[in-house]
Write a structure and sequence with these properties.
The complex is a heterodimer of chains A (about 190) and B (about 190).
Chain A (H helix, E strand, L loop, with lengths): L1 H5 L1 H14 L15 E6 L8 H12 L4 E9 L5 E7 L4 E6 L4 E6 L4 H8 L11 H31 L4 H21 L1
Chain B lengths: L2 H15 L1 H15 L10 E8 L8 H11 L5 E8 L2 E8 L2 E8 L4 E8 L2 H9 L9 H29 L5 H24 L1
Antiparallel strand pairs in B: 1-5, 2-3, 3-4, 4-5
Helix pairs in contact in B: 1-2, 1-5, 2-4
């Protein structure tokens, strides 16, 4: 009971994330959110860098909060270097306008549920490196252990307190059998 | 039946109904977190070649269906690439994937199958979502996942009701609930505002 009370927020976030996941599109059909903000900053690239190195330096220069990795480095039709930076609050699209010596940062802010979906994967070793996100990561990891404990202790409490409940026996047996059959069929 | 007893039975029913599913999600989550500590999952690899006449392999999709119907492959069709005289694609399901290369000239489909280990399969089931799969069990896993998610929220709500009904536990429980919620919501809100 205590572990459930302490980790209730994580359980609700996981539940909401699981419900949201059913509405996610199949691979390749994902549409990023609309651009919600655009800003530009002057930047002079070094002359001896290839595109991958330049993308890495621009990634450091723009210093996007909550930034994860940067991906899909390529040139657009106007030969400008483009890539995007993943953040738990949505992706940031970076374009280096080489002739103007300017970096353009387009923000595609995601929805709250998409943010929670990203955050539900955080743990003490994974996720944004800002303090608040790390605090959540530790809480999320602790909640995972608590969830395992509640799963096992819940069954124990049933067996210890009301093992003779016929409907509970049937429900436990049927659901376990269905789970095992589904596993075997998938395997 | 009192409301307390009803809630207790709903709580028990949800827990037992999703017991193995909950265990699977808990263990797979830990496998995600501590994957770097686990020994590398052993995967079985095998290869075979089957003959398919060119007229039954008019496209990647037609060929994939043929292989699923008559040659024991099952899963979702992915990454279809068709070029002159050759079709390549992948058939995936939780715990297994097969890469297929078909040559129209020889009529041979080379199937390379990789059967993943237990923890890898657990992780893949954890991330199955949506009802758009060609592979029926994957849709069932996705359904189980969404039902389990609803069940998890209901378990939390009924749990709160059951705790609140235990008068002696209100103070300690209230402190734990408050501390947990303030800490977690503050961490999420501050992260979102970063």
């Amino acid at each position: 009971m205590y572990s459930g009370l302490l980790t209730l927020t994580a359980l609700v976030v996981w539940g909401a994330t699981g419900i949201h996941a059913v509405f996610l599109p199949p691979p390749g059909a994902h549409q990023p959110p609309e651009v919600s903000e655009v800003r530009e900053e002057p930047y002079q690239a070094g002359g001896d860098l290839d595109d991958k190195e330049l993308a890495g330096q621009i990634h450091e220069f723009v210093d996007i909060p909550l930034a994860g990795g940067h991906y899909n480095i390529h040139r657009d039709d106007d030969h400008n270097l483009k890539f995007f930076v993943f953040t738990v609050s949505g992706r940031r699209e970076i374009t280096y306008l080489e002739e103007r010596r300017t970096v353009r940062i387009e923000t595609r802010q995601n929805s709250l549920i998409q943010f929670l979906s990203s955050m539900h994967t955080s743990n003490s070793r994974r996720g944004p490196r800002v303090l608040a996100a790390r605090m959540w990561g530790f809480y999320n990891e602790f909640s995972t252990w608590a969830f395992l404990f509640m799963t096992v202790s819940g069954v124990y409490l049933w067996i210890a307190s009301r093992p003779g409940l016929r409907w509970a026996q049937i429900l436990a047996g049927t659901s376990a059998a269905m789970f095992i059959v589904l596993w075997a069929v998938t395997r | 039946m009192t409301v307390f007893r009803l809630m207790r039975n709903i709580h028990l029913g949800l827990g037992l109904g999703f017991g193995l599913g909950a265990l699977m999600f808990a263990v797979s989550s830990l496998a995600f977190i501590y994957g770097y500590l686990l020994p590398e999952d052993s995967a079985e690899e095998s290869a075979r070649t089957v003959l398919i006449p060119a007229e039954r392999a008019s496209s990647g999709r037609a060929l994939a269906l043929e292989l699923m119907r008559d040659h024991g492959l099952k899963g979702d069709l992915r990454a279809v690439e068709e070029s002159a005289g050759e079709i390549r694609f992948r058939i995936v399901r939780p715990g297994s994937n097969a890469d297929i290369v078909y040559s129209a000239d020889s009529g041979e489909a080379r199937i390379q199958t990789r059967r993943l280990g237990f923890t890898q399969m657990l992780r893949q089931i954890h991330t199955v979502h949506g009802f758009w799969h060609d592979h029926l069990p994957s849709n069932v896993w996705a359904g189980l996942s969404v039902l389990g998610s609803i069940g998890l929220i209901l378990l939390g709500l009924t749990g709160i009701y059951l705790w609140f009904g235990m008068h002696k536990e209100r103070v300690v429980g209230g402190v734990l609930l408050g501390v947990g919620m303030v800490y977690a919501i503050a961490a999420l809100a501050l992260t979102r505002m970063s």
